[in-house]
Amino acid sequence: MARDDWYRNTTWNEAIETDYQSRLRRARDKSRYLRIQASYLADRHPKVALRLLDQYFALGEHFDIAQAFVDKARALKAEDDLEGALQAYEAAIEREKSHPNLITQAYLDFACLIADTNFDSLYYRALEVLDTHRTRPMFPVDRYRASGARALLLHSLGLEEEARSDATLAMTAASEIESGFRYHQQLGLVKDVDDDFGRRVAILARQAAQ
What we know:
Layout: H1 14-26, H2 30-41, H3 46-58, H4 65-78, H5 82-98, H6 106-117, H7 123-132, H8 140-156, H9 160-174, H10 196-209
């Protein structure tokens, strides 16, 4: 086993947990290994990830708390606890306000989850978050997600003209074939728009073109 593979397991069973906990007990920076391992398990083994994150948070203050809240949100989403996931994303957003040296994708994940799941009581909050971070998206995939989420939220609020405008921006970002970064031209491109989010945004963009 490579030196850092012990805290990057993508599956989990009793033997793996025994080995992991044994190594964790000997580790100096336990919080780092708890948070990273949880991030690898959040989607496929959310209960384990949440348990590890409970251990992480119990250790107190750490520089990557905002990312830990994002990992927690992913695990809660995998558990179909969408309200809990949204609360975790909000916690990450709040953490970034006081500790801006480490920023995450929480603002995008939060807005996209609301747009995807029709939490109508949070539409304006999602738009507020997107507006607050309007200058953040750098890569095409970030612009696609931000403009796409905004389009769906505006559409749900009956603001059709604005929704179609943002949908057009989203699909333009999705069509980009270079990131614009000299040494990382393929980084951050949109790989797939054939999901419910992408199809709904594409419909609005087509309406704008008619």
